[in-house]
Amino acid sequence: MLLATLLVDYPILREALSHTPDVTVTWEQSDLTEDGDHQLLVWVDGDEFAAFDAALEADPTVTAPVRVVEFDERRLYQLELTPEGHRSSVYPLVIEEGGVLQEVTATSEGWRFRVAFPSDEALERFYAFFVEQDLEVELRKLYEKGESVGGAGTRSEFGVTEYQHEALVAAVDAGYLDIPRSCSLAELGERLDISPNATSERFRRGVKTLIENTVYPADQSP
Q1: Which of 93, 127, 139, 200 has its CA 20 to 30 A from that of 114?
Q2: Measured distance between the N- and C-terminal CA atoms of the chain, rounded to whole angstroms
Q3: What is the DSSP letter of 67?
Q4: Which of 98, 83, 84, 90 has its CA nearest to residue 130?
């Protein structure tokens, strides 16, 4: 399986978090009921609980908040997604694709997903879910399951996926990187049998990963 880390401008709890910049939310568990409801447990860390509770009541993506456990600077909440929140939730897709949420955290700056996927195709569909909703999403790290987070033994010599490798090689072969270019993005997509948008996303992610794992300073985290 693949372990991917993605940063996403995810709409769930966006309103509540926007009013509490010092709060961190950590996903604990999700449950899909027989009636189609989506309930989740989240840990909330910080010292802005009064402001968070008020913002939570006004957040359009969740309802019926219940404090399950309370500590000085940490609380466990049970929440239920509203219809708007359910439409925005990627969790049903994760289950459908056979993925496993390893770690999910959120702040006012967005959500960080660390997910295990059974295949490249499952990862591509997970990524596409956010793109299709016009949400900002960035693939930050990609490893084989069981690899250390430090980066040893990445998926290939330079960390790019099979599809990214294919896109990068095709771009060189087709003259997409020539000056002037010998082929357009649409023509490159035809070679890969995918849309121009998908071609652009795959190519850019591959270039970014290649740079991070080769010429990017080792003592800096992009």
Answers
A1: 200
A2: 24
A3: E
A4: 90
Find, among 137, 143, 124, 118, the residue nearest to 213 by Cα. Answer: 143
The rounded mean pLDDT for the chain is 86
Q: How many whole angstroms separate alpha carbon 214 and alpha carbon 162?
A: 17
Query: Hey, what are 138's tokens?
Result: 């960035």
**How much is the average pLDDT of 83-102?**
93
In sequence order, the 6+-apart residues with CB closer than 8 A to the CB of 173 are none
pLDDT digits over 25-62, tens only?
999 999 987 777 889 999 999 888 999 999 999 999 99
Provide the sign of the torsion angle of the four alpha carbons 65, 69, 38, 50, taken in this order.
positive
Statement: the pTM of the whole predicted model exceeds 0.85: no
- The answer to whether 116 touches 3, Cβ cutoff 8 Å, is yes
Which residues, 6 or more positions from 142, have their beta carbon under 8 angstroms from its beta carbon? 2, 3, 4, 5, 123, 154, 155, 159, 161, 209
Q: Which of 16, 10, 1, 99 is nearest to 50 (CA)?
A: 16
- Rounded CA-CA distance 199/185 in Å is 7
Quickly count: other Cβ atoms within 10 Å of residue 1's Cβ: 17
Residue 142 CB-density burial (10 A; 0-12 exposed, 13-18 middle, 19+ buried): buried
State the DSSP H helix or E strand holding residue 189, giving kind and residue range, or none if neither.
Answer: helix 185-192
Cβ atoms < 10 Å from Cβ of 189:
21
